[in-house]
Design goal:
With about 200 residues, the chain is an alpha+beta fold. It has a domain of about 130 residues. The protein contains five helices and six strands. Strands 2-3-1-4-5-6 form a six-stranded antiparallel beta sheet. Strand 4 and strand 5 form a beta hairpin. Helix 4 runs antiparallel to helix 5. The two termini are about 30 Å apart.
């Protein structure tokens, strides 16, 4: 892709467990939409925009795909990311969350947008990962104000909501997709920073 007048610095961050038997060549093929977007010739050539970020790495011994990578791009990156995440799902061993951050290059009126995309070997695995992330987020928020006994009511209510969604998933209903960088479902706007290692 031609990165002239890129509107965003786009950062993706997360660790995805990969199932046994998956080769580096399969990882590279799955992530081809990402490294092609960055005008790289291969996954190894798709270095991050920032030297301090490790980029996209696959640890074959631990079977973990580690993402800490920034690329310049525009709103069309979302389609590229959707394609890559679909391919990652086919190789994943369990559900995982991938943070996506769009840092607006327009200093005058730009707004940064943040959100999560979930991947996993099955819709049920993705759903369970979403539930766990939500539970962790809620617990962190509520523990500032309430004790564990009081928090459990809210957590139970959220778990019931997720249980209903799981029924929808198993019945084949399609759930709304997360749209970036407009904010969409699960997106948030405001200040933030890239993950530094």
């Amino acid at each position: 892709m031609a990165n002239y007048e890129a509107q965003f610095e786009i950062h993706i961050h997360g660790d995805v467990p990969i199932r046994p038997g998956v080769t580096y060549a399969q990882i590279e093929e799955a992530l081809k939409p990402l490294w092609k977007y960055a005008d790289a010739k291969s996954l190894k050539d798709a270095t991050s925009l920032f030297d301090e970020e490790p980029g996209i790495e696959y640890d074959a011994q631990k079977r973990v795909l580690a993402l800490c990578w920034t690329v310049e791009g525009n709103e069309d990156f979302q389609n590229t990311l959707d394609e890559a995440c679909g391919a990652i799902c086919d190789l994943s061993a369990e559900g995982a969350g991938i943070e996506v951050s769009y840092f607006d290059n327009d200093d005058d009126d730009g707004q940064d947008t943040f959100g999560l995309i979930f991947v996993g070997p099955s819709p049920e695995a993705i759903h369970e990962t979403q539930r766990l992330y939500m539970q962790e987020d809620l617990t962190r928020l509520l523990e500032r104000h309430f004790d564990k006994g009081e928090m459990s009511e809210v957590i139970d209510a959220v778990n019931r909501l997720f249980a209903r969604r799981l029924v929808s998933i198993t019945q084949g209903q399609k759930l709304a997709r997360v749209d970036f960088p407009s904010g969409g479902h699960g997106g948030s706007k405001g200040g933030g920073k890239r993950h530094l290692h």
